[in-house]
């Protein structure tokens, strides 16, 4: 039994209905997260789909968009809904993981600097060992209040900078899968 779980955070159709959605980085993300999911499944790692749910708009259950992006076809071991930026505090995920003696989380999903980073910080605070797989995360350019635009690359590098050696180990898809192989 693996003591690891892959969190697939907010990879949901809701984002396609937000004004900031763009597909510039989608092909690379799609390839990376698909490889990560397939590799984790082969190694017996639990697959956890976590979807963000809001009362209204494209993230509401009534919208019909709170479902996987169409390129994903895996069978999750559990699917949970969250209403906050991290996947652990009110979704039931923490209890689900602890019941299965899972103590290592691999982070992937949408948005790198928001729900993925926040989940990583909370997971570390709760005592989990965390591997952050940046290439299996997706985000979009953001504008600072002063007007400066931060690119997806800048946002990802910032997230890596604040997480590494404090909250998580950084890994590529290949490195994360190799690490799992060594642990089994």
TrEMBL record:
It comes from the Bacteria. InterPro entries: Isochorismatase-like_dom, Isochorismatase-like_hydrls, Isochorismatase-like_sf. Gene3D superfamilies: Isochorismatase-like. It holds the Pfam family Isochorismatase. Keywords: Hydrolase. Residues 4-145 form the Isochorismatase-like domain. The keyword Hydrolase applies. GO terms for molecular function: hydrolase activity. This is Isochorismatase family protein. It comes from Serratia inhibens. The lineage of its organism: Bacteria, Pseudomonadati, Pseudomonadota, Gammaproteobacteria, Enterobacterales.
